[in-house]
Amino acid sequence: MHDIIIRGGSIYDGTGGSSFTGDVAIDGDRIVAVGKVDGRARREIDAHGLMVAPGWVDIHTHYDGQALWDPYLTPSSWHGCTSVVMGNCGVGFAPVHPNQEDWLISLMESVEDIPGAALSDGIDWTWQSFPGYLDALDAKARAIDIGTQVPHCAVRAFVMGDRCIDEETAGEDDIRKMADIVQEGLEAGALGFSTSRTIFHKTREGEYVPGTYAGAAEMFGLAAGMQRAGHGVLEMATDLTLKAGKPELDWIRDLSIRYGVPVSLLLFQNDDAPRKYRELLEEIRRANAEGGQVYAQVSGRTAGLLLCLEGSLHPFQGKPSFRALLGLSREERIARMKDPAVREAIITEESGGKGGEMAEFFLKGWHKMFRLGDPPNYEPDRSECFAERAQTEGRRPEDIAYDTLMEFDGKGLIYFPLLNYTDYDFAPVREMLTAPHTHFSGSDGGAHCGVICDVSLPTFNMAYWGRDRKKGGLMPLEWLVHRQTQSTASLHGLNDRGVIAPGYLADINLIDFDRLGIDAPRMAYDLPTGARRLIQRATGYHMTIKSGMPIMENGQETGALPGALIRGPQSI
Question: What are the φ/ψ torsions at residue 343 (nearest 5 degrees)?
Fold first, then answer.
C-alpha cells in the first residue's frame, strides 16, 4: 500500500530525456517507483491528459524577510515552485548587530523595493549570527523548501560598521573576519555567498551598497572561507554588460580555479552595449575551458518594469497636478483623473519635485513603453510601442500612456522592458537561454514589489517557450522542464530533487498544459501592515506535491506544510 500513486500521466522526468506515459508511486517524502506501478495507494490520482514534472527550483529570489511570516512564499508556490534559493545580490538580514536591524531593512527596501514597514512588522529579530538566522528560518512551518546565502552587505556592515561603505578596500583583519563569518554561515547550512557589483544597487542615501567595489583581495579572501567550508556558490549581480568585462572576468575565473568555487553571474542584454552579452558568454566559455566554474543566470523574458498608478513608478508621478491628488483615496483619485481638465494638466505640465527625475527618464522612453494587457504580452512588436502608435494614430504618446494607466478602473499596466529588448524581439533571450554554462533565473520572487513582477517566470517559460511563441520557434518541453528542475537544482548541489525517479524527493507538478498560463499582474495589499506588492496568478496547475504531500490543488492551498530549510548540498 503506497501513500500516493499518480496514474497514467505524461512524465517529463527532469533529465531532459523523452517524455513517456506511466505511473509514479510515492511513500513518505520520496518517489519509490516510476513506470507501471502495480498495487494500491491510500490516494490514487488520475493524471491522464496531464503533464507530470518535478517541482520547479527557483534559484534567484529575495524572500529573506517573507520566509519568516508567509509559509507559502506566494506567489512562487502558485507557480509550481517547490524549492527556492534566496539571499541573492548581497542583501539580507544576517549577521546583524543590535540596533543595526533598521539599516538592513532600509538597504533591502532601497535595493529590492520591499516595503520597509512590512519588513519591520513581519520580522522578529531573534538572532545576531548567520547560523542564528538559519535557526529562526528552521523554526517556521512552511509549504516549500527554502535555501539561502550569506549576503556580502550584511557581513561587511557587521565587521566594518560605518566603514563598510566609505572604504572600498578592506584591511587584512577585516577580510579575515568576513571570511570566518562566510565559512561559519556555509557550515551552518547556507548554500552560498552573494554580492552586488552594480551601480543600480544603492542605499537610501544614494551611496553604492557595501562591497560594490571590493577588490580582488577581499573577494579572494571570502572565497577562501567558502573553500574551507567545502561548498557554496558565489552569486554576483554585476554590470558586466555595461563595461569592459574581461578584466573582471579574469579575476572571477582565477578565483573560481584557485578556490574551486562556482561563480554565478546575472546576464542580460543592455541597450547601451546590445551585443556585449555574446562577448561575455564567450569569455565564460573560455574561463571554464581553463578550469573555471563560471555560470550565467539568464531570464526567459525581459527584465521589465511595470508602471502603474498604484506602484512605485509611472510617467506622470512628478507632475504637480498628479501629486495634488495623492492625499485622496484611490477611488477619488481615479475619478478626478477622468476629468478632462485634470487629465490635460497632468499630461502637459513639467515634472518636478520628488519623483520628477525618474518621471523625466520615462517621458523620454516612449519607444520602450507598451500596453501590457490581460492576458499579458511580454514580446510585443515595435509597432505597438507608444512612440510608434502616436505617429500611426496621430496622438501624443502621453495620451496613450494615460489611457493605458486608466484601463481596468485605473489598474492598467505600462510595460517597460528595461533589459533584453534592444531588438524588440526575444532572439537574444533565446540565445542566452540555450547557451552553454547558463541557468534559468531572474524571477526575483519577493522583491521589487511596486515595479516588477517576474515571479511567474517558471510558468511563463513553459507556456510561452513551449507552446505559445509565434516567432523564432518553440523549445522542447523535455528541455524546458530540465532547465528549471535538475539543472537549477544542480547548481547548488541539491541533487535530491528535480528528477522523477526512485529515491528522489517527491516534489511534483501535475499540469494541464493546454491551460497553463499567467494572469496579468495586479497590486495586492497583503504584506504585513497592509503594504503593497505586485502579484501574478497562474492557471493550469492541477496539483503541486511537495515531499509527498499535496500543497496546492486547483490553485488552492491545502494547508499542508511539508517544506523545510535546506541546509547545505543534498543527495539521494
Answer: -55, -50
